[in-house]
Specification:
alpha/beta, 9-stranded mixed beta sheet, 202 residues, single chain, Rossmann fold, 24% strand, binds S-adenosylmethionine, 7 helices
Length: 202
């Protein structure tokens, strides 16, 4: 199966392991959404985290019909649903999810508001590739900054940056009435060793 999943834009192993860990803790009946199936690497990590559990449903959306078909050929558990289409267009029709892995331009760089809406109260949004790299074009670095400031300013979210793989933002959507931040300052908190900062999104 590993050969069939080979795909340059697949999530890295550290992010995949994080996804597997997060899904493993979800309660029965929870739903998971992945935006951008690719060839199914992130999806495979989620399935691996769930093991034999079939009580958590996973929906994965891919725009590219050929990638969708390629992923759909693989033997997924019946709790997995693969959709072909534009994530931004589909998001309002999909309902709310306990975990959303936003890994497509649609829903990440565009339509982020729709993605946040799809995170159920108490749920978590995961976004990778959030640490700017020197070889990335300036427009991409600006897009990352926009995502950081948008999420960091959203009073419903508590946002942590994890030094995992290509850089992960993990945003928990608070239950109604619960404070998103304990420290009063909004923004993106950086998880890390002593001395790491806490403050407005960088
Ligand atoms: C980074 S790759 C996804 C990798 C995959 N999540 C994984 O872990 O292996 C991004 C994918 O998003 C797809 N994509 C691009 N725009 C999209 C959109 N508007 N809606 C859904 N998928 C989209 C691309 O075709 C590509 O397969």
């Amino acid at each position: 199966m590993a050969g069939e999943l080979d795909f340059a834009d697949a999530c890295d192993d550290a992010v995949g392991a994080l996804l597997a860990t997060l899904v493993a803790d979800l309660p029965a009946g929870a739903r998971v959404l992945e935006l951008g199936t690719g060839t199914g690497v992130g999806l495979a990590w989620c399935c691996s985290g769930l093991g034999s559990r079939r009580d958590v449903r996973i929906v994965s959306v891919e725009l590219d019909p050929s990638l969708h078909r390629r992923a759909a050929r693989l033997a997924w558990p019946p709790s997995v649903q693969l959709l072909q289409g534009d994530a931004v267009a589909l998001l309002p029709t999909l309902g709310a999810f306990a975990l959303v892995f936003a890994d497509a331009p649609g829903g990440k760089w565009e339509g982020l508001d729709r993605t946040v809406e799809a995170v159920a109260p108490g749920g978590v949004l995961v976004m990778d590739d959030m640490t700017p790299q020197p070889w990335w074009p300036p427009a991409h670095t600006e897009a990352i900054a926009t995502v950081r400031s948008t999420l960091g300013a959203d009073e419903r979210l508590r946002v942590e940056e994890l030094p995992v793989g290509s850089g992960v933002l993990l945003a928990r959507r608070c239950q109604p009435g619960a404070p998103a931040s304990t420290g009063g300052a909004r923004g993106v908190s950086r998880a890390g060793p002593a001395g790491s900062d806490r403050g407005p999104g960088r």
